[in-house]
Amino acid sequence: MIQIPFPDGFPTKEPFLAFASHNQWWWAPRTGPRLSGSGLTDAVLVLVRDAGGYHVAATGFHPTKRCRFHSNPDPVVDVSDGPAVDLVDCAVFVSSDTPAKALHAAARAIQAQVPGLRLRGEKPYPDYRDLLGWCTWEAFPHQQVTAAGVEEALRAFSRSGWVPPFVILDDGWLDAEDDGALRSFEAHPAKFPDGLAELIRQAKETYGVRMFGIWHTLHGYWQGICPDSRLAKAYPLRCAEAALYPDWEKWADRKRWSLEPESFGRFLRDWYEQLTAAGVDFVKVDSQASHSAFVADRESLTADIRRHQEELLPVVTSAFGDNYLACMCHLPEILTSPSPGNSWRASEDYHPGEPWFTQWQVWASAINSQWIGEFAWPDWDMFRSTDTHAWFSAAARVLGGSPVYLSDQPGEIDRAVLEACSRDAQIVHRYSRLPEVSAACILRDCHKERVLLRLRGGDDRVSALGIFHCYDARQADAAEPIVEAVSIQDFGEETAKDWVVFSFRDQRAFLVRAGETWQVALRPLEFDVFSAVPVRGPLTVIGFTGKLAAGAGIVESGEPQEEARDIHLPTTGRLLIYQPTGRPIMHWAGRRVSATPRAETGFFEFFITQPGTVKIEFPSPQTAKQ
Predict the structure, then answer these.
(1) Which of 384, 401, 435 delimits the end of a domain?
(2) Which helix (DSSP H) or strand (DSSP E) does residue 421 occupy?
(3) Both 282 and 173 in a single domain?
(4) 206-240: per-residue pLDDT in tens?
(5) Which terminus of the chain faces fewer neighbouring Cβ atoms within 10 Å, N or C?
(6) CATH code: domain of residue 543
(7) Averaged over 389-396, what is the pLDDT?
(8) What pairing do the DSSP bridges indicate for beta strands 527-534 and 498-503?
(9) Whole-number Å distance between alpha carbons of 423 and 430
(10) Beta-strand (E) ranges in 291-374?
(11) Does residue 388 share a domain with residue 353?
Protein backbone atom coordinates (compact mmCIF):
# COMPACT_ATOMS: atom_id res chain seq x y z
CA MET A 1 0.00 0.00 0.00
CA ILE A 2 1.28 3.46 -0.96
CA GLN A 3 0.49 6.35 1.40
CA ILE A 4 0.38 9.94 0.15
CA PRO A 5 -0.03 12.77 2.73
CA PHE A 6 -2.74 15.39 2.33
CA PRO A 7 -1.46 18.64 0.79
CA ASP A 8 -0.13 21.39 3.00
CA GLY A 9 -2.83 23.86 3.90
CA PHE A 10 -5.72 21.38 4.08
CA PRO A 11 -7.15 21.85 7.60
CA THR A 12 -6.78 18.72 9.76
CA LYS A 13 -7.43 20.03 13.28
CA GLU A 14 -11.01 21.22 12.78
CA PRO A 15 -14.45 19.49 12.87
CA PHE A 16 -15.07 17.08 10.02
CA LEU A 17 -17.61 14.87 8.28
CA ALA A 18 -16.46 11.76 6.42
CA PHE A 19 -18.11 9.04 4.37
CA ALA A 20 -16.52 5.74 5.39
CA SER A 21 -17.34 2.06 4.95
CA HIS A 22 -20.16 0.92 7.23
CA ASN A 23 -20.08 -2.66 5.96
CA GLN A 24 -19.31 -4.37 2.69
CA TRP A 25 -22.17 -2.69 0.84
CA TRP A 26 -22.76 0.72 2.40
CA TRP A 27 -20.90 3.71 3.71
CA ALA A 28 -22.05 5.80 6.64
CA PRO A 29 -21.39 9.33 7.89
CA ARG A 30 -18.74 9.81 10.54
CA THR A 31 -18.10 13.08 12.36
CA GLY A 32 -15.51 14.28 14.84
CA PRO A 33 -13.91 17.34 16.42
CA ARG A 34 -10.68 17.05 14.40
CA LEU A 35 -9.49 14.98 11.46
CA SER A 36 -5.94 14.36 12.68
CA GLY A 37 -5.84 11.52 15.19
CA SER A 38 -9.47 10.56 14.50
CA GLY A 39 -8.60 6.99 13.53
CA LEU A 40 -10.64 7.41 10.35
CA THR A 41 -10.31 4.42 8.00
CA ASP A 42 -11.56 3.47 4.56
CA ALA A 43 -13.14 6.87 3.82
CA VAL A 44 -14.00 8.20 0.38
CA LEU A 45 -14.72 11.84 1.24
CA VAL A 46 -13.87 14.29 4.00
CA LEU A 47 -15.57 17.66 4.61
CA VAL A 48 -13.85 20.05 7.03
CA ARG A 49 -14.82 23.50 8.26
CA ASP A 50 -12.44 26.21 9.41
CA ALA A 51 -12.53 30.00 9.60
CA GLY A 52 -11.92 30.19 5.86
CA GLY A 53 -14.93 28.08 4.86
CA TYR A 54 -15.53 24.44 3.91
CA HIS A 55 -12.92 22.15 2.42
CA VAL A 56 -13.50 18.80 0.68
CA ALA A 57 -11.14 15.94 -0.08
CA ALA A 58 -12.58 13.20 -2.31
CA THR A 59 -11.07 10.04 -3.75
CA GLY A 60 -11.94 6.72 -5.39
CA PHE A 61 -12.00 7.78 -9.04
CA HIS A 62 -8.65 6.39 -10.26
CA PRO A 63 -9.29 4.01 -13.20
CA THR A 64 -7.16 1.11 -11.91
CA LYS A 65 -6.15 1.73 -8.28
CA ARG A 66 -8.13 1.47 -5.06
CA CYS A 67 -7.76 4.76 -3.17
CA ARG A 68 -9.11 5.56 0.31
CA PHE A 69 -8.50 8.07 3.08
CA HIS A 70 -7.05 7.11 6.46
CA SER A 71 -6.09 9.24 9.45
CA ASN A 72 -3.71 7.61 11.89
CA PRO A 73 -2.65 10.04 13.09
CA ASP A 74 -2.47 12.43 10.11
CA PRO A 75 -4.68 12.02 7.04
CA VAL A 76 -3.26 10.24 4.01
CA VAL A 77 -4.47 8.72 0.77
CA ASP A 78 -3.94 4.96 0.78
CA VAL A 79 -3.29 3.75 -2.77
CA SER A 80 -3.16 0.09 -3.76
CA ASP A 81 0.24 -1.34 -4.65
CA GLY A 82 1.76 -0.97 -8.06
CA PRO A 83 3.38 1.88 -10.00
CA ALA A 84 3.48 5.16 -8.09
CA VAL A 85 0.81 7.78 -8.80
CA ASP A 86 0.66 11.51 -8.15
CA LEU A 87 -1.74 12.93 -5.57
CA VAL A 88 -3.63 14.88 -8.26
CA ASP A 89 -4.45 11.59 -10.02
CA CYS A 90 -6.08 9.92 -7.01
CA ALA A 91 -7.73 12.71 -4.97
CA VAL A 92 -9.25 16.17 -5.39
CA PHE A 93 -9.09 19.00 -2.86
CA VAL A 94 -11.48 21.96 -3.17
CA SER A 95 -12.89 24.77 -0.98
CA SER A 96 -15.97 27.02 -0.91
CA ASP A 97 -18.07 29.10 1.47
CA THR A 98 -20.89 26.54 2.02
CA PRO A 99 -20.95 22.75 2.36
CA ALA A 100 -23.16 22.34 -0.71
CA LYS A 101 -20.93 24.47 -2.91
CA ALA A 102 -17.80 22.65 -1.72
CA LEU A 103 -19.33 19.23 -2.43
CA HIS A 104 -20.48 20.34 -5.87
CA ALA A 105 -17.01 21.71 -6.64
CA ALA A 106 -15.52 18.33 -5.65
CA ALA A 107 -17.92 16.50 -7.96
CA ARG A 108 -17.00 18.83 -10.81
CA ALA A 109 -13.30 18.28 -10.13
CA ILE A 110 -13.79 14.50 -10.33
CA GLN A 111 -15.83 14.89 -13.52
CA ALA A 112 -12.88 16.72 -15.09
CA GLN A 113 -10.73 13.64 -14.41
CA VAL A 114 -13.15 10.89 -15.53
CA PRO A 115 -13.95 10.95 -19.27
CA GLY A 116 -17.68 10.55 -19.92
CA LEU A 117 -18.79 11.01 -16.29
CA ARG A 118 -22.15 12.80 -16.03
CA LEU A 119 -23.46 14.42 -12.86
CA ARG A 120 -27.09 14.10 -11.77
CA GLY A 121 -28.24 17.32 -13.42
CA GLU A 122 -26.99 16.04 -16.77
CA LYS A 123 -28.98 12.79 -16.66
CA PRO A 124 -32.58 11.93 -17.57
CA TYR A 125 -35.04 11.54 -14.71
CA PRO A 126 -36.38 8.01 -14.01
CA ASP A 127 -40.14 7.81 -14.61
CA TYR A 128 -40.99 5.48 -11.72
CA ARG A 129 -39.66 7.86 -9.06
CA ASP A 130 -42.70 10.14 -9.28
CA LEU A 131 -45.18 7.31 -8.67
CA LEU A 132 -46.16 5.90 -5.29
CA GLY A 133 -45.05 2.31 -5.02
CA TRP A 134 -45.07 -0.93 -3.06
CA CYS A 135 -42.15 -3.32 -2.55
CA THR A 136 -42.54 -6.94 -1.52
CA TRP A 137 -39.43 -7.19 0.71
CA GLU A 138 -40.94 -6.33 4.11
CA ALA A 139 -44.47 -7.34 3.12
CA PHE A 140 -43.64 -11.05 3.38
CA PRO A 141 -41.11 -13.03 5.41
CA HIS A 142 -37.80 -12.37 3.68
CA GLN A 143 -37.34 -14.35 0.44
CA GLN A 144 -40.73 -16.05 0.88
CA VAL A 145 -42.66 -14.01 -1.66
CA THR A 146 -44.95 -15.95 -4.01
CA ALA A 147 -47.15 -15.11 -6.97
CA ALA A 148 -50.21 -15.98 -4.88
CA GLY A 149 -49.03 -13.68 -2.10
CA VAL A 150 -48.46 -10.75 -4.46
CA GLU A 151 -51.87 -11.24 -6.08
CA GLU A 152 -53.55 -11.44 -2.67
CA ALA A 153 -51.79 -8.21 -1.63
CA LEU A 154 -52.96 -6.40 -4.78
CA ARG A 155 -56.49 -7.73 -4.23
CA ALA A 156 -56.48 -6.50 -0.63
CA PHE A 157 -55.11 -3.09 -1.61
CA SER A 158 -57.74 -2.80 -4.33
CA ARG A 159 -60.51 -3.54 -1.81
CA SER A 160 -59.15 -0.73 0.37
CA GLY A 161 -59.40 1.70 -2.55
CA TRP A 162 -55.72 1.96 -3.47
CA VAL A 163 -53.53 0.06 -5.91
CA PRO A 164 -49.81 0.90 -5.97
CA PRO A 165 -48.88 2.62 -9.24
CA PHE A 166 -45.59 0.73 -9.23
CA VAL A 167 -44.50 -2.58 -7.73
CA ILE A 168 -41.02 -3.90 -6.99
CA LEU A 169 -40.83 -7.70 -6.83
CA ASP A 170 -37.87 -7.99 -4.47
CA ASP A 171 -35.63 -10.89 -3.41
CA GLY A 172 -37.20 -14.35 -3.32
CA TRP A 173 -38.71 -14.62 -6.79
CA LEU A 174 -35.75 -16.07 -8.69
CA ASP A 175 -35.02 -19.69 -9.57
CA ALA A 176 -32.03 -20.20 -7.28
CA GLU A 177 -30.37 -22.91 -5.21
CA ASP A 178 -30.88 -22.88 -1.46
CA ASP A 179 -27.25 -21.82 -1.08
CA GLY A 180 -27.89 -18.63 -3.07
CA ALA A 181 -26.66 -19.48 -6.59
CA LEU A 182 -28.79 -18.66 -9.64
CA ARG A 183 -30.07 -21.60 -11.72
CA SER A 184 -31.92 -19.83 -14.55
CA PHE A 185 -33.51 -16.61 -15.78
CA GLU A 186 -36.94 -17.90 -14.76
CA ALA A 187 -39.06 -17.25 -11.70
CA HIS A 188 -38.94 -19.92 -9.00
CA PRO A 189 -41.19 -22.68 -10.36
CA ALA A 190 -42.78 -23.62 -7.03
CA LYS A 191 -43.47 -20.03 -5.96
CA PHE A 192 -44.49 -18.75 -9.40
CA PRO A 193 -46.01 -21.79 -11.12
CA ASP A 194 -47.53 -19.72 -13.96
CA GLY A 195 -44.36 -17.72 -14.50
CA LEU A 196 -43.45 -14.07 -14.08
CA ALA A 197 -45.29 -12.84 -17.18
CA GLU A 198 -48.67 -14.05 -15.92
CA LEU A 199 -48.24 -12.28 -12.57
CA ILE A 200 -47.29 -9.02 -14.30
CA ARG A 201 -50.23 -9.33 -16.71
CA GLN A 202 -52.63 -9.70 -13.79
CA ALA A 203 -51.03 -6.84 -11.88
CA LYS A 204 -51.44 -4.47 -14.80
CA GLU A 205 -54.66 -5.64 -16.43
CA THR A 206 -56.68 -6.69 -13.39
CA TYR A 207 -55.45 -4.23 -10.77
CA GLY A 208 -54.11 -1.27 -12.75
CA VAL A 209 -50.44 -1.32 -11.73
CA ARG A 210 -48.63 1.05 -14.12
CA MET A 211 -45.02 -0.08 -13.78
CA PHE A 212 -43.64 -3.41 -12.58
CA GLY A 213 -40.01 -3.73 -11.47
CA ILE A 214 -37.94 -6.73 -10.45
CA TRP A 215 -34.89 -7.30 -8.27
CA HIS A 216 -31.66 -9.17 -8.95
CA THR A 217 -28.03 -8.85 -7.86
CA LEU A 218 -25.21 -7.67 -10.07
CA HIS A 219 -23.87 -11.23 -10.31
CA GLY A 220 -27.29 -12.82 -10.82
CA TYR A 221 -27.94 -13.90 -7.23
CA TRP A 222 -26.19 -13.54 -3.86
CA GLN A 223 -23.71 -16.35 -4.47
CA GLY A 224 -23.42 -15.87 -8.22
CA ILE A 225 -24.26 -18.57 -10.78
CA CYS A 226 -24.79 -22.26 -10.09
CA PRO A 227 -21.88 -24.04 -11.87
CA ASP A 228 -24.11 -27.02 -12.73
CA SER A 229 -26.91 -24.95 -14.28
CA ARG A 230 -27.89 -24.30 -17.87
CA LEU A 231 -26.61 -20.75 -17.42
CA ALA A 232 -23.11 -22.09 -16.73
CA LYS A 233 -23.18 -23.90 -20.05
CA ALA A 234 -24.34 -20.82 -21.96
CA TYR A 235 -22.09 -18.19 -20.38
CA PRO A 236 -18.41 -18.67 -19.42
CA LEU A 237 -17.89 -18.43 -15.64
CA ARG A 238 -14.94 -17.70 -13.38
CA CYS A 239 -14.33 -18.86 -9.81
CA ALA A 240 -13.26 -16.90 -6.74
CA GLU A 241 -13.10 -17.69 -3.04
CA ALA A 242 -13.56 -14.90 -0.50
CA ALA A 243 -15.87 -13.77 2.29
CA LEU A 244 -19.03 -12.14 0.94
CA TYR A 245 -20.13 -10.93 4.37
CA PRO A 246 -17.83 -12.18 7.18
CA ASP A 247 -20.44 -11.82 9.95
CA TRP A 248 -22.82 -14.27 8.27
CA GLU A 249 -21.72 -17.88 8.46
CA LYS A 250 -23.60 -18.95 5.33
CA TRP A 251 -21.81 -16.23 3.35
CA ALA A 252 -18.32 -16.83 4.71
CA ASP A 253 -15.39 -18.00 2.56
CA ARG A 254 -16.56 -20.32 -0.18
CA LYS A 255 -16.20 -20.79 -3.91
CA ARG A 256 -18.39 -18.51 -5.98
CA TRP A 257 -18.95 -18.66 -9.69
CA SER A 258 -19.67 -15.48 -11.61
CA LEU A 259 -19.63 -14.37 -15.20
CA GLU A 260 -16.42 -13.75 -17.05
CA PRO A 261 -16.28 -10.03 -17.93
CA GLU A 262 -16.50 -10.93 -21.62
CA SER A 263 -19.86 -12.68 -21.11
CA PHE A 264 -21.44 -10.27 -18.59
CA GLY A 265 -23.00 -7.93 -21.16
CA ARG A 266 -24.41 -10.81 -23.26
CA PHE A 267 -25.81 -12.44 -20.12
CA LEU A 268 -27.68 -9.23 -19.19
CA ARG A 269 -28.94 -8.61 -22.72
CA ASP A 270 -30.40 -12.10 -22.95
CA TRP A 271 -31.95 -11.87 -19.48
CA TYR A 272 -33.40 -8.41 -20.00
CA GLU A 273 -34.86 -9.39 -23.35
CA GLN A 274 -36.79 -12.10 -21.51
CA LEU A 275 -37.80 -9.71 -18.72
CA THR A 276 -39.10 -7.01 -21.06
CA ALA A 277 -41.08 -9.64 -22.94
CA ALA A 278 -42.68 -10.58 -19.62
CA GLY A 279 -43.71 -6.95 -19.04
CA VAL A 280 -40.97 -5.79 -16.65
CA ASP A 281 -40.52 -1.99 -16.72
CA PHE A 282 -37.49 -1.42 -14.47
CA VAL A 283 -34.85 -3.21 -12.43
CA LYS A 284 -33.32 -2.90 -8.98
CA VAL A 285 -29.75 -4.23 -9.19
CA ASP A 286 -28.50 -5.16 -5.73
CA SER A 287 -25.27 -6.25 -4.00
CA GLN A 288 -23.08 -4.26 -6.37
CA ALA A 289 -20.44 -3.42 -3.78
CA SER A 290 -19.77 -7.12 -3.03
CA HIS A 291 -17.67 -7.33 -6.18
CA SER A 292 -14.52 -8.25 -4.24
CA ALA A 293 -16.06 -11.63 -3.32
CA PHE A 294 -16.26 -12.54 -7.02
CA VAL A 295 -12.78 -11.51 -8.19
CA ALA A 296 -9.76 -13.73 -7.49
CA ASP A 297 -7.17 -11.23 -8.76
CA ARG A 298 -7.03 -8.42 -6.19
CA GLU A 299 -4.82 -6.26 -8.41
CA SER A 300 -7.46 -6.10 -11.13
CA LEU A 301 -10.41 -5.43 -8.77
CA THR A 302 -10.84 -1.68 -9.43
CA ALA A 303 -10.66 -2.07 -13.19
CA ASP A 304 -13.03 -5.06 -12.99
CA ILE A 305 -15.60 -3.04 -11.03
CA ARG A 306 -15.52 -0.27 -13.60
CA ARG A 307 -15.73 -2.68 -16.51
CA HIS A 308 -18.89 -4.28 -15.12
CA GLN A 309 -20.47 -0.84 -14.67
CA GLU A 310 -19.59 0.14 -18.23
CA GLU A 311 -21.33 -3.02 -19.45
CA LEU A 312 -24.34 -2.71 -17.13
CA LEU A 313 -25.82 0.71 -17.84
CA PRO A 314 -26.05 0.55 -21.65
CA VAL A 315 -27.89 -2.78 -21.39
CA VAL A 316 -30.23 -1.44 -18.70
CA THR A 317 -30.92 1.71 -20.72
CA SER A 318 -31.62 -0.26 -23.89
CA ALA A 319 -34.15 -2.45 -22.06
CA PHE A 320 -35.74 -0.12 -19.50
CA GLY A 321 -34.80 3.44 -20.44
CA ASP A 322 -33.77 5.39 -17.35
CA ASN A 323 -35.71 3.24 -14.89
CA TYR A 324 -32.97 1.57 -12.90
CA LEU A 325 -32.18 1.57 -9.18
CA ALA A 326 -28.66 0.78 -7.98
CA CYS A 327 -28.56 -0.79 -4.51
CA MET A 328 -25.86 -1.94 -2.06
CA CYS A 329 -23.54 0.01 -4.32
CA HIS A 330 -21.49 2.30 -2.07
CA LEU A 331 -18.15 2.12 -3.77
CA PRO A 332 -16.64 5.31 -5.18
CA GLU A 333 -15.41 3.24 -8.13
CA ILE A 334 -19.11 2.74 -9.00
CA LEU A 335 -20.31 6.25 -8.14
CA THR A 336 -17.58 7.89 -10.23
CA SER A 337 -17.66 5.47 -13.14
CA PRO A 338 -18.88 6.96 -16.43
CA SER A 339 -22.09 4.94 -15.98
CA PRO A 340 -23.17 4.98 -12.31
CA GLY A 341 -26.90 5.01 -13.07
CA ASN A 342 -29.55 7.62 -12.39
CA SER A 343 -31.02 6.44 -9.05
CA TRP A 344 -29.03 5.24 -6.04
CA ARG A 345 -30.00 3.85 -2.67
CA ALA A 346 -28.72 6.32 -0.09
CA SER A 347 -28.06 4.11 2.95
CA GLU A 348 -28.69 0.86 4.82
CA ASP A 349 -32.11 -0.77 4.62
CA TYR A 350 -35.18 0.38 6.49
CA HIS A 351 -35.88 -1.93 9.46
CA PRO A 352 -39.56 -2.06 10.51
CA GLY A 353 -40.26 -2.07 14.21
CA GLU A 354 -36.84 -0.63 15.16
CA PRO A 355 -37.39 3.06 15.98
CA TRP A 356 -33.78 3.81 16.91
CA PHE A 357 -32.57 2.36 13.61
CA THR A 358 -35.14 4.39 11.70
CA GLN A 359 -33.65 7.51 13.30
CA TRP A 360 -30.15 6.47 12.23
CA GLN A 361 -31.31 5.49 8.74
CA VAL A 362 -32.97 8.87 8.16
CA TRP A 363 -29.90 10.76 9.38
CA ALA A 364 -27.52 8.60 7.33
CA SER A 365 -29.69 8.88 4.21
CA ALA A 366 -29.83 12.65 4.52
CA ILE A 367 -26.07 13.03 4.95
CA ASN A 368 -25.08 10.43 2.34
CA SER A 369 -27.43 12.07 -0.15
CA GLN A 370 -25.38 15.25 -0.02
CA TRP A 371 -22.62 13.42 -1.95
CA ILE A 372 -24.63 10.77 -3.80
CA GLY A 373 -26.99 13.51 -4.99
CA GLU A 374 -24.20 15.08 -7.00
CA PHE A 375 -24.14 11.99 -9.23
CA ALA A 376 -27.61 10.39 -9.00
CA TRP A 377 -31.08 10.79 -7.49
CA PRO A 378 -31.03 9.34 -3.96
CA ASP A 379 -33.47 6.64 -2.82
CA TRP A 380 -34.13 6.34 0.94
CA ASP A 381 -35.69 2.85 0.71
CA MET A 382 -39.18 1.54 1.43
CA PHE A 383 -41.13 1.90 4.69
CA ARG A 384 -44.36 0.64 6.25
CA SER A 385 -47.22 3.12 6.50
CA THR A 386 -48.53 1.27 9.57
CA ASP A 387 -45.36 1.47 11.67
CA THR A 388 -45.51 3.65 14.77
CA HIS A 389 -42.85 5.85 13.16
CA ALA A 390 -44.39 5.85 9.67
CA TRP A 391 -44.98 9.61 9.57
CA PHE A 392 -41.33 10.23 10.44
CA SER A 393 -40.23 7.97 7.57
CA ALA A 394 -42.74 9.45 5.14
CA ALA A 395 -41.79 13.05 5.85
CA ALA A 396 -38.09 12.25 5.51
CA ARG A 397 -38.60 10.69 2.09
CA VAL A 398 -40.82 13.47 0.79
CA LEU A 399 -38.45 16.20 1.98
CA GLY A 400 -35.40 14.14 0.98
CA GLY A 401 -36.44 13.94 -2.67
CA SER A 402 -36.67 10.14 -2.49
CA PRO A 403 -39.17 7.85 -4.19
CA VAL A 404 -41.99 6.98 -1.81
CA TYR A 405 -42.80 3.28 -1.75
CA LEU A 406 -44.33 1.16 0.96
CA SER A 407 -43.74 -2.39 2.08
CA ASP A 408 -46.89 -2.96 4.10
CA GLN A 409 -48.38 -6.39 4.46
CA PRO A 410 -51.51 -7.12 2.40
CA GLY A 411 -54.42 -4.89 3.38
CA GLU A 412 -52.50 -2.91 6.02
CA ILE A 413 -52.19 0.52 4.41
CA ASP A 414 -52.63 3.78 6.35
CA ARG A 415 -54.41 5.93 3.77
CA ALA A 416 -53.70 9.15 5.68
CA VAL A 417 -49.95 8.64 5.24
CA LEU A 418 -50.46 8.04 1.51
CA GLU A 419 -52.54 11.18 1.09
CA ALA A 420 -50.00 13.37 2.88
CA CYS A 421 -47.25 12.15 0.55
CA SER A 422 -49.09 12.28 -2.74
CA ARG A 423 -51.61 13.64 -5.20
CA ASP A 424 -54.64 11.33 -5.07
CA ALA A 425 -52.45 8.50 -3.70
CA GLN A 426 -50.82 8.15 -7.12
CA ILE A 427 -48.14 10.80 -7.76
CA VAL A 428 -45.60 11.81 -5.11
CA HIS A 429 -46.24 15.40 -3.99
CA ARG A 430 -42.83 16.93 -3.29
CA TYR A 431 -40.59 19.89 -4.03
CA SER A 432 -38.41 20.09 -7.13
CA ARG A 433 -35.08 20.74 -5.39
CA LEU A 434 -33.08 18.05 -3.62
CA PRO A 435 -32.58 19.33 -0.08
CA GLU A 436 -29.38 20.48 1.55
CA VAL A 437 -28.49 19.51 5.09
CA SER A 438 -28.13 22.73 7.04
CA ALA A 439 -24.60 23.91 7.85
CA ALA A 440 -25.77 24.02 11.49
CA CYS A 441 -25.84 20.21 11.70
CA ILE A 442 -23.93 18.76 8.75
CA LEU A 443 -20.77 18.25 10.86
CA ARG A 444 -22.72 16.84 13.81
CA ASP A 445 -23.79 13.26 14.48
CA CYS A 446 -27.52 13.80 14.96
CA HIS A 447 -27.91 10.18 16.11
CA LYS A 448 -25.36 10.47 18.92
CA GLU A 449 -25.71 14.16 19.81
CA ARG A 450 -28.73 16.13 20.97
CA VAL A 451 -28.93 18.06 17.72
CA LEU A 452 -31.89 18.19 15.36
CA LEU A 453 -31.40 17.24 11.71
CA ARG A 454 -32.38 20.09 9.39
CA LEU A 455 -33.15 19.60 5.69
CA ARG A 456 -33.87 22.63 3.57
CA GLY A 457 -35.40 22.43 0.14
CA GLY A 458 -38.35 23.79 -1.82
CA ASP A 459 -38.79 25.24 -5.28
CA ASP A 460 -38.80 28.65 -6.96
CA ARG A 461 -41.94 29.79 -5.11
CA VAL A 462 -41.70 28.30 -1.62
CA SER A 463 -38.90 27.36 0.77
CA ALA A 464 -39.17 24.29 2.99
CA LEU A 465 -37.39 23.22 6.15
CA GLY A 466 -37.77 19.70 7.53
CA ILE A 467 -36.60 19.18 11.12
CA PHE A 468 -36.18 15.63 12.47
CA HIS A 469 -35.36 14.24 15.91
CA CYS A 470 -32.79 11.53 15.09
CA TYR A 471 -31.12 11.34 18.51
CA ASP A 472 -31.00 7.66 19.51
CA ALA A 473 -34.28 6.79 21.26
CA ARG A 474 -32.43 4.20 23.41
CA GLN A 475 -30.40 6.86 25.25
CA ALA A 476 -31.30 7.61 28.87
CA ASP A 477 -31.94 11.30 28.15
CA ALA A 478 -33.77 10.73 24.86
CA ALA A 479 -37.24 11.40 26.30
CA GLU A 480 -36.30 15.01 27.02
CA PRO A 481 -37.30 17.17 24.04
CA ILE A 482 -34.59 18.86 22.01
CA VAL A 483 -35.38 22.57 21.81
CA GLU A 484 -33.81 24.75 19.11
CA ALA A 485 -34.43 28.18 17.63
CA VAL A 486 -35.39 28.51 13.96
CA SER A 487 -35.34 31.54 11.67
CA ILE A 488 -35.91 32.29 8.00
CA GLN A 489 -32.14 32.17 7.55
CA ASP A 490 -32.33 28.43 8.28
CA PHE A 491 -34.29 28.06 5.04
CA GLY A 492 -31.36 29.60 3.18
CA GLU A 493 -33.43 32.69 2.44
CA GLU A 494 -32.96 36.37 3.23
CA THR A 495 -34.54 37.96 0.16
CA ALA A 496 -37.73 39.36 1.70
CA LYS A 497 -38.67 41.31 4.80
CA ASP A 498 -41.86 39.43 5.73
CA TRP A 499 -42.60 35.71 5.41
CA VAL A 500 -45.63 33.52 5.95
CA VAL A 501 -44.74 30.17 7.58
CA PHE A 502 -46.87 27.04 7.96
CA SER A 503 -46.08 24.22 10.41
CA PHE A 504 -47.29 20.78 9.29
CA ARG A 505 -46.94 19.32 12.79
CA ASP A 506 -49.00 21.99 14.55
CA GLN A 507 -51.15 22.89 11.51
CA ARG A 508 -50.39 26.50 12.43
CA ALA A 509 -49.68 29.50 10.20
CA PHE A 510 -47.85 32.62 11.31
CA LEU A 511 -46.10 35.73 10.01
CA VAL A 512 -42.35 36.09 10.55
CA ARG A 513 -39.94 38.91 9.82
CA ALA A 514 -36.41 38.28 8.63
CA GLY A 515 -34.19 38.00 11.69
CA GLU A 516 -36.97 36.82 14.04
CA THR A 517 -36.84 33.34 15.54
CA TRP A 518 -39.31 30.77 16.82
CA GLN A 519 -38.72 27.63 18.84
CA VAL A 520 -39.07 23.99 17.89
CA ALA A 521 -39.27 21.28 20.58
CA LEU A 522 -39.19 17.65 19.40
CA ARG A 523 -39.03 14.27 21.11
CA PRO A 524 -37.63 11.06 19.57
CA LEU A 525 -39.08 10.30 16.11
CA GLU A 526 -40.96 13.58 16.03
CA PHE A 527 -40.56 16.00 13.15
CA ASP A 528 -41.94 19.17 11.65
CA VAL A 529 -42.00 20.51 8.12
CA PHE A 530 -42.16 24.28 7.73
CA SER A 531 -43.20 25.86 4.43
CA ALA A 532 -42.23 29.52 4.04
CA VAL A 533 -43.40 31.94 1.33
CA PRO A 534 -42.27 35.58 1.05
CA VAL A 535 -44.96 38.27 1.32
CA ARG A 536 -44.60 40.29 -1.91
CA GLY A 537 -48.15 41.61 -2.35
CA PRO A 538 -51.64 41.50 -0.86
CA LEU A 539 -52.08 37.75 -1.59
CA THR A 540 -49.69 35.01 -0.43
CA VAL A 541 -50.50 31.41 -1.40
CA ILE A 542 -48.87 28.97 1.04
CA GLY A 543 -50.14 25.54 -0.01
CA PHE A 544 -52.15 22.51 1.02
CA THR A 545 -52.29 22.00 4.77
CA GLY A 546 -52.68 18.21 4.52
CA LYS A 547 -49.53 17.70 2.44
CA LEU A 548 -46.05 17.24 3.81
CA ALA A 549 -44.74 19.35 0.93
CA ALA A 550 -47.52 21.92 1.34
CA GLY A 551 -46.51 24.38 -1.36
CA ALA A 552 -45.14 22.01 -4.01
CA GLY A 553 -46.26 22.31 -7.62
CA ILE A 554 -48.34 25.48 -7.25
CA VAL A 555 -47.86 27.99 -10.08
CA GLU A 556 -49.01 31.61 -9.84
CA SER A 557 -49.51 34.03 -12.72
CA GLY A 558 -50.05 37.76 -12.59
CA GLU A 559 -48.22 40.58 -10.86
CA PRO A 560 -48.01 40.58 -7.03
CA GLN A 561 -49.92 43.88 -6.73
CA GLU A 562 -52.84 42.91 -8.98
CA GLU A 563 -56.25 42.35 -7.35
CA ALA A 564 -56.76 38.95 -9.00
CA ARG A 565 -54.39 36.08 -9.60
CA ASP A 566 -54.58 32.84 -11.61
CA ILE A 567 -53.32 29.93 -9.54
CA HIS A 568 -52.59 26.46 -10.94
CA LEU A 569 -53.21 23.84 -8.27
CA PRO A 570 -51.75 20.34 -8.77
CA THR A 571 -53.78 18.50 -6.14
CA THR A 572 -56.76 18.66 -3.81
CA GLY A 573 -57.39 19.52 -0.17
CA ARG A 574 -57.42 22.62 2.02
CA LEU A 575 -55.53 25.48 0.35
CA LEU A 576 -54.03 27.97 2.81
CA ILE A 577 -53.59 31.62 1.82
CA TYR A 578 -52.64 34.85 3.57
CA GLN A 579 -54.64 37.96 2.69
CA PRO A 580 -54.63 40.61 5.45
CA THR A 581 -56.89 43.15 3.69
CA GLY A 582 -60.12 41.17 3.44
CA ARG A 583 -61.78 37.90 2.54
CA PRO A 584 -60.73 36.61 -0.92
CA ILE A 585 -63.05 35.10 -3.53
CA MET A 586 -62.22 32.10 -5.74
CA HIS A 587 -63.66 31.58 -9.23
CA TRP A 588 -63.60 27.89 -10.07
CA ALA A 589 -65.67 25.67 -12.39
CA GLY A 590 -68.18 28.47 -13.00
CA ARG A 591 -68.71 29.07 -9.30
CA ARG A 592 -67.84 31.97 -7.00
CA VAL A 593 -66.62 30.73 -3.61
CA SER A 594 -65.71 32.78 -0.52
CA ALA A 595 -62.72 31.74 1.55
CA THR A 596 -63.16 30.37 5.08
CA PRO A 597 -61.32 32.39 7.76
CA ARG A 598 -58.88 30.59 10.02
CA ALA A 599 -58.25 31.39 13.68
CA GLU A 600 -55.01 33.14 12.75
CA THR A 601 -55.61 36.73 11.64
CA GLY A 602 -55.30 37.26 7.90
CA PHE A 603 -55.28 33.56 7.01
CA PHE A 604 -58.00 31.85 4.95
CA GLU A 605 -58.70 28.45 3.39
CA PHE A 606 -60.38 27.19 0.26
CA PHE A 607 -61.37 23.54 -0.04
CA ILE A 608 -60.17 22.31 -3.45
CA THR A 609 -61.93 19.20 -4.79
CA GLN A 610 -60.10 18.82 -8.11
CA PRO A 611 -56.79 20.00 -9.57
CA GLY A 612 -56.73 22.81 -12.11
CA THR A 613 -56.43 26.56 -12.50
CA VAL A 614 -58.53 28.94 -10.39
CA LYS A 615 -58.78 32.71 -10.20
CA ILE A 616 -58.57 34.31 -6.77
CA GLU A 617 -59.80 37.88 -6.28
CA PHE A 618 -58.96 39.91 -3.23
CA PRO A 619 -59.18 43.54 -2.12
CA SER A 620 -55.91 45.41 -2.46
CA PRO A 621 -54.82 47.59 0.48
CA GLN A 622 -56.05 50.66 -1.43
CA THR A 623 -59.47 49.10 -2.14
CA ALA A 624 -59.79 47.94 1.47
CA LYS A 625 -59.30 51.53 2.72
CA GLN A 626 -62.05 52.94 0.48
Answers:
(1) 435
(2) helix 415-421
(3) yes
(4) 999 999 999 999 999 999 999 999 999 999 999 98
(5) C
(6) 2.60.40.1180
(7) 98
(8) antiparallel
(9) 10
(10) 324-326, 343-345
(11) yes
